[in-house]
Specification:
Elements lengths: L5 H6 L7 E4 L3 E5 L7 E7 L14 H17 L7 E4 L15 E5 L4
Antiparallel strand pairs: 1-2, 2-3, 3-5, 4-5
Bound molecules: guanosine-5'-monophosphate and zinc ion (ZN).
Length: about 110
């Protein structure tokens, strides 16, 4: 059953989005409108609106998002060249999808 949160639906495999990595906690997929040659989204399966809504119990989720971002950076070959990890927080911070996600952006030409 589709709910009205796009990233909940993607994380449940209910869309055509190609999932690059999945574990019990999160999924990783390509941003549909990339801002760089590499632009991945690291998305927890738990619906959390934004960084503002994180609870103390969510600390392991956040830690795992960052560790998997590190691993994905290596997988797609940007570890050494470098990359950005970015959370947009609420409308004024550029957030348009209100389900927590970490942007992994890189792969620019030297
Ligand atoms: P935000 O601005 O909320 O931090 O970032 C949301 C990101 O989700 C945007 O970069 C946007 O391009 C991406 N996005 C929006 N809809 C879809 C979609 O249906 N599939 C994928 N793969 N990415 C999406
Ligand atoms: Zn959601």
């Amino acid at each position: 059953m589709l709910n009205d949160c796009l990233f909940c639906n993607i994380s449940k495999g209910q869309t055509a989005t190609e999932i690059l990595f999945e574990n019990d906690t999160l999924v990783v997929f390509k941003d549909i409108n990339p801002h760089a040659p590499v632009h991945l989204l690291i998305v927890p399966k738990k619906h959390i609106r934004s960084i503002n809504d994180l609870m103390d119990d969510d600390q392991p989720i956040l830690a795992e998002m960052i560790m998997i971002a590190r691993d994905m950076a290596a997988t797609v070959g940007v570890s050494q060249s470098g990359y950005k990890l970015l959370f947009n927080v609420e409308k004024g911070g550029g957030q348009v999808i209100f389900h927590l996600h970490l942007h992994l952006i890189g792969g620019w030409k030297k």
